[in-house]
Structure formats: structure tokens, C-alpha cells
Amino acid sequence: MLGISKQKGSSLFTELFLRFLIGGAVVSAFAVLGDLFKPKSFAGLFGAAPSIALATVVLTINTEGAAYVATEARSMVAGAVAFFIYASCASCLLVRYKFPALAATSSMILVWLAAALGLWVVWLR
Fold first, then answer.
1. C-alpha dihedral over 78, 17, 51, 30, to 10 degrees?
2. Residues 80-120: pLDDT tens digits?
3. For the chain, what are the domain ranges?
């Protein structure tokens, strides 16, 4: 019994180490990419989410297989599309209609939810 838990612990440590290593390298690469573009507000866009998604895909393909990763990647794309719709609608309310930021972003959560559920029904289910 001890050998089994020791193996699981070692495998977990290795996986976590790889996640930190790959995630850190990819975050650094995206940070450099963000510094190359103007305005500097793009740096945040290139920072966390894409690099964490890529690190997760690389590690998951080794543990779960390509079919599982394909499903996860489609889910990530659907989430990105739903977020784009949310951000576009919130920006429209903020810029064109001068809504307060909290009111615009809070009310658009329902738009994000509708977009995400719609994409799930049409594309992922």
C-alpha cells in the first residue's frame, strides 16, 4: 500500500513540477510577445489565459489522450467566443451609451451565459 501511494505522490509531484515549468515558460513567452505590441494594454491579453491553456493542453494530452484534449480545446474556444460576445456588448454599453461600468458589466453576464449555453447546445453537446 505504501508503494502505491508513494508512486501516486511522485507522479503528482512530477505533474505539478511540469505544470509550473511549462506554464512559466509559456507565460514568459507571451509576456515578451505582449511587450512587442502597442499599446501596452495588450500585454495582459497575452499574459495568463493563453499560456495556461496551452500548458494544460500539453500536460493533458500525455495523461488523458488526444480525444479528451480535443473536447477540452473546443470548450476553450467556445468560452473565448462567449467572452468576446460579452466584452463586445459591455464595450458598446460603456462607450456608446455611457453606462456606469458596474451596471454594464453586471448586466452583460446574462449575455455571456446565453452565448455560452447556446454554443454548448449547438456545438459541444
1. 180
2. 999 999 999 999 999 999 999 999 999 999 999 999 999 99
3. 1-63, 66-125
